[in-house]
Amino acid sequence: xxxxxxxxxxxxxxxxxxxxxxxxxxxxxxxxxxxxxxxxxxxxxxxxxxxxxxxxxxxxxxxxxxxxxxxxxxxxxxxxxxxxxxxxxxxxxxxxxxxxxxxxxxxxxxxxxxxxxxxxxxxxxxxxxxxx
Amino acid sequence: xxxxxxxxxxxxxxxxxxxxxxxxxxxxxxxxxxxxxxxxxxxxxxxxxxxxxxxxxxxxxxxxxxxxxxxxxxxxxxxxxxxxxxxxxxxxxxxxxxxxxxxxxxxxxxxxxxxxxxxxxxxxxxxxxxxxxxxxxxxxxxxxxxxxxxxxxxxxxxxxxxxxxxxxxxxxxxxxxxxxxxxxxxxxxxxxxxxxxxxxxxxxxxxxxxxxxxxxxxxxxxxxxxxxxxxxxxxxxxxxxxxxxxxxxxxxxxxxxxxxxxxxxxxxxxxxxxxxxxxxxxxxxxxxxxxxxxxxxxxxxxxxxxxxxxxxxxxxxxxxxxxxxxxxxxxxxxxxxxxxxxxxxxxxxxxxxxxxxxxxxxxxxxxxxxxxxxxxxxxxxxxxxxxxxxxxxxxxxxxxxxxxxxxxxxxxxxxxxxxxxxxxxxxxxxxxxxxxxxxxxxxxxxxxxxxxxxxxxxxxxxxxxxxxxxxxxxxxxxxxxxxxxxxxxxxxxxxxxxxxxxxxxxxxxxxxxxxxxxxxxxxxxxxxxxxxxxxxxxxxxxxxx
Lengths: 132, 545
Description:
The complex is a heterodimer.
Chain A: E1 7-12, H1 20-31, E2 35-41, H2 44-53, E3 58-63, H3 67-80, E4 86-90, H4 94-102, E5 106-108, H5 114-124
Parallel strand pairs in A: 1-2, 1-3, 3-4, 4-5
Helix pairs in contact in A: 1-5, 2-3
Chain B: H1 30-33, E1 60-61, E2 64-65, H2 70-82, E3 87-90, H3 94-98, H4 106-109, H5 125-131, E4 141-143, H6 152-165, E5 175-176, H7 181-187, H8 196-213, E6 217-218, H9 225-228, H10 234-255, H11 260-266, E7 269-274, H12 278-300, H13 305-308, E8 311-316, H14 328-343, E9 347-349, H15 362-378, H16 392-414, H17 418-423, H18 426-435, H19 437-444, H20 473-487, H21 490-505, H22 512-520, H23 525-536
Parallel strand pairs in B: 1-9, 2-3, 3-4, 4-5, 5-6, 7-8, 8-9
């Protein structure tokens, strides 16, 4: 019997409703066998609650704003579930990518391929390629 | 072709229309061939609205601009005008404006560092005064912001209140609103928004108010761009724009307070995108004018020649701009701007080379102007109207896009109309159908994006980190909000808010005079949002993914 699908929570960190990028990524992850939970535009504490309630294996942050907001969310998630991996995509200037890398968060700015993002999700949730 | 590159499985336009290696007269359908020789300035205007093209009037250079505090946005607008921009567009902060939240709303406080990143914070008419300080709005074509539907009345009333306090005659004021359904309900879906039916009511109120008081103002502007950059292809973008116009004009007709012909003339300032498929998008703009002419004459019986000429603003597609090697985007911006000129637009904004990173830096903004100025003055492009006219390929594409676009209009009408197609998520599904196509083609190796899929340079010394903005927008907005609350005449503000509420609850009333009074009494953005939410509740957002 195969293991249950790994669970990923995808959220938007900003109150910016552009959803095209997130939509493409969410569907690529679903197609790869992940169970994707769309959290929407929720705050740090709400993200923590959703991550716990949904018992997710990975959190994906769709960034559309300032690095400081993202850093605060990461700190809140780490305080509640230190072992939970986090990765980020969206509007991520190189300086934000470097800052998030220092915090142990992988970043996938525009131009990243869906293959790279799916591979990262598999690696971060400890599944072999092709089996979410 | 170099073996390094794979040929596409089939040659098509960006929207999937098959294309041949070359075109001849037999490729143009007979009914289109019959109108090919009609000159620019003559109905049905596919070849352009004006016989003299750009000889008598060049296109308006019209860039989105704004960030930070109102004074930061003011400085940037002045910079652009000094550098040759010929109109200006105010951007409002997305956190506050799009949601009608004041900065002390918990959802904004949780993201306080984001405040001001995408536009200035304007919570009361005092902020709009600062943003417009020293800008001659009596003679400069201004876009008041309010791209999001529920924000439109606030943004417009604030701008007009500033004008009135300067002693200007509103009947002479030039400019445009937006209140765009594509942005609000399709492309950039806010966390909270009034339902589409309430949005339609707000837009109809604006159209009628302008009809009565601001004859030189474009009340609302349908921005199919936002459908295109969300995933709709060229003919879907065209068809959806027409379906949106039908919704507005049918509503005006149903209300029976304004002549639908007059309303039609006011709704003809629209917005499309151009991408890097040069001929498809130039053809799209030609088809748009022809479709507008047909819609107005056949469905609404319009005969006024001015009304029958659709005026087009183009924004070059932001989604074409790459994160990698951003200076390549200056070339992409130039090509998309060229496409717009070939399509015969009245107004244009070129997205910044740092589009994938941030709102434009001063330098990126200046380049967006210079691209257009080089096209206007150094290329001889402005000498001849519709230079593509008579090209077998372009005429065939124009006809094909129009045919497919009318079919898409029909599909939307079968859903119950444009609003219903948004409410149900049907339109979102159409956008979604196309969203992954570029990624797939890139993965398969049949689509090349310079600097991204090929010709990569991982150690590029030409890094751009995006425009950082300012770091005091939230704090200053908070102080100013407190000052408004402290200093305003509380009874007057409460009374104006109550009257605004009564007008919202009475569909026979137009809210705009009451919105003007409310702003004059220093009623704030968040109070108006709370009122809307009480009266109309929230739009039930369809499943997007």
